[in-house]
Amino acid sequence: MVEFLPGDFNHTETKDKHIAVCFDLQEEKMSWTAADAVDYKGFPADKSRTGGWVSAALILGIEICERLSTMGIAVNLVTYLVGTMHLPSSTSANIVTDFAGTSFLLCLLGGFLADSFLGRYKTIAIFASIQSLGIVALAISVKLPQLRPPHCDITAANNDCQQANEFQMGFLYLALYMIALGIGGLKSSVSGFGSDQFDDKDDKEKAQMAYFFNRFFFFISTGTLMAVTVLVYIQDQVDRTLAYGICSIAMFIAILVFFSGTKRYRYKKSTGSPIVQIFQVIVAVVRKRKMPLPYDIALLYENYPEASRIGHTDQFRFLDKAAIVAEEDFERNAPAGSLPNPWKLCSVTRVEEVKMMVKLLPIWATTIMFWTAYAQMLTFSVEQASTMERSIGKFQIPAGSLTVFFVLAILITLAVNDRIIMPVWKKWKGQPGFTNLQRIAIGLVLSTLGMAAAALTEKKRLSVAKGMKTMSTGALPISVYWLIPQFFLVGSGEAFIYTGQLDFFITQSPKGMKTMSTGLFLSTIALGFFVSSFLVSIVRRFTGSKDGQGWLADNINYGRLDCFYGLLSVLSVINFVAYLVCARWYKPRKPTKPSNGSSAEDKC
Fold first, then answer.
1. Looking at residues 196-209, what average pLDDT do you find?
2. Cβ contact 290:321 at 8 Å
3. 319: Cβ contacts below 8 Å, ≥ 6 apart
């Protein structure tokens, strides 16, 4: 302990000595505690006992099981709905896309609950349990004969198969949407909680965090690969109930493993939902909509420290009205220095944060179409595969396993981009790689080509089907490998657009709204599935007939699925043009340099 006597130093030397001691104590404390994190008892998190790779690995375990169960259900669900529940192909496709879309849309709810009330740990624990119970309910639905219609040969040309009744479909919907609710809460928090285990102010742990995100994407791909190969094979060739049972057991084990790390995790306190902050700005603007804007922006209200302020911009000037100071903004008889009511007066920085989020919306809207094309890989493409020759010797490839080419396309594209494209691009353009907007554009182009390839392949498949004497949904004498181009093109597109969107929404959003922007990104996937369901309903309404024919016929051999793929290709081209306009309009916000005005004494 350093002791200062009155006569030892002059005032300046004593002051400097106090500052030095303060910094020494602060640096010593920061060396063993993680910034802004606490342990399970609420004390500052000790780096030697909490966080790091051990904790992150426990979290990755629950993610791989979530991906295994989710994809194991989604990629092969359409064959169960058509073959066992005896539903029309278009209805089955809509059920799958609505289920997947709801799963991603509920990420917004999960993020809101995690930010505002529960925290990420409790959110993961609660919603992972809900998902596990939903998988158990789905296994029961598949197992009990009372929960499905009588067996019938759906492949017969003139079958009279009984569709599932309302009770049977109701129980199935209950199971599916319990799973969707669990996915939404789990997916919104698992990546963020994993990154919480590393201190971004520590250079060593910051590097480990970047490695964690690489491994996170690898685990997602690994879980998907296992789902579309092993689990789909068990569903088709062994027993679907067994496959869903494996999923539920894996989730329960993952939850127990997750709980085992409770004492090792680092926790960060909830800072409030950015959705509430956005609504505060909107309400303040509506209240002051008739007030004129001041000519001098310096008259607008600002209460953020200089170092964390966001500079004023001229876009969306009407939002600046939320920062106009009025007498009624401050409570009467309030103590000096008290903050105004945030529903009446917002700071310029808060308004600029909302402006940043509004600027993301045009890019957000023009990326939805990609996920509409992606939805076809889980529905109609799988149904196409079920009608084609899939044998390798005596082994028959499950129709749902064709999505393995989709996953391989993602992994190959990422490897080629990392090892070949990026180094060449760096030599040619002097940049480390494609920008996030360029990656999104590449993904949109590849998905458009994928839909065009799907249309040509379906035209070929239909010509073979029409050449046969009986138009059934049995195996046609055409190889299933004709479907590889559409899987590969859309899969490669996902490798570009997923990373591009994630990078764009995180780097171009305010610091306090990262969870919100991640949810915004995931909502594009949800809306892509919903748009797919909407298009299917519209096409079926305008091209269908009373006997179940049309572009999307109950038996796809009688339909014109190639025309539907062609429609998606045209819509994708129009969407790409709109995206180019929005990308040209968008001006990325340059990172602001930290202020140098604060002295060492102030920091201490």
1. 75
2. no
3. 281, 285, 351, 354, 355, 358
pLDDT in tens, 477-500: 888 889 889 999 999 998 889 888
Structure tokens at 150: 């009588």
**Alpha-carbon gap, residue 529 to 524, rounded angstroms:** 9
What does the block give as tokens for 3?
């002791």
- Judge residue 2's burial from the number of C-beta atoms within 10 Å of its C-beta, 0-12 exposed, 13-18 middle, 19 or more buried: exposed
Is the pLDDT assigned to residue 17 strictly greater than 80? no
Q: Measured between alpha carbons, how far is 21 from 67 in angstroms, rounded to an integer?
A: 51
Give the pTM: 0.75
Per DSSP, the three-state class of 218 is helix
Backbone torsion region of residue 3, taken as left when φ is above 0, otherwise alpha when ψ lies between -120 and 50, otherwise beta:
beta
Tokens of 374: 């992606």
Structure tokens at 577: 């043009």
Return the closest-CA partner of residue 1 out of 11, 18, 323. Answer: 18
Residue pair 203/155 in contact (Cβ under 8 Å)? The answer is: no
Report whether 566 contacts 486 (CB < 8 A): no
Phi, psi dihedrals of residue 478, rounded to the nearest 5°: -145, 135
SS (H, E, C) 79-143: HHHHHCCCCCHHHHHHHHHHHHHHHHHHHHHHHHHHHHHHCHHHHHHHHHHHHHHHHHHHHHHHH
- The average pLDDT across 294-312 equals 84
Of 188, 271, 223, 241, nearest in space to 522 by CA: 188
Question: How many other CB atoms sit within 10 Å of the CB of residue 419?
Answer: 9
Secondary element (H or E) of residue 396:
strand 395-396
d(CA 571, CA 579): 12
- Mean per-residue pLDDT, 149-163: 74
List the Cα angle 140/141/143 in 5-degree steps.
Answer: 60
How many other C-beta atoms can be found within 10 angstroms of the C-beta atom of residue 101? 23
Token digits of residue 52: 């790091």
Residue 593 CB contacts under 8 Å (≥ 6 apart), including other chains: none
How many CA atoms are closer than 13 Å to the CA of 226, on its beta-carbon side?
Answer: 16
Q: Are 39 and 27 in contact (CB under 8 A)?
A: no
> Would strands 476-479 and 388-389 be described as parallel, antiparallel, or unpaired?
parallel
Scanning 367-512, the segments in alpha helix (DSSP H) are 368-378, 380-386, 404-416, 422-429, 436-466, 484-507
Within 8 A by CB and 6+ apart from 85, the residues are 92, 148, 149, 163, 164, 168, 169, 172
How far, in Å, CA of 564 to CA of 457, rounded?
Answer: 12
Residue 409 structure tokens: 């396309």
Q: Report the mean per-residue pLDDT for the chain.
A: 81
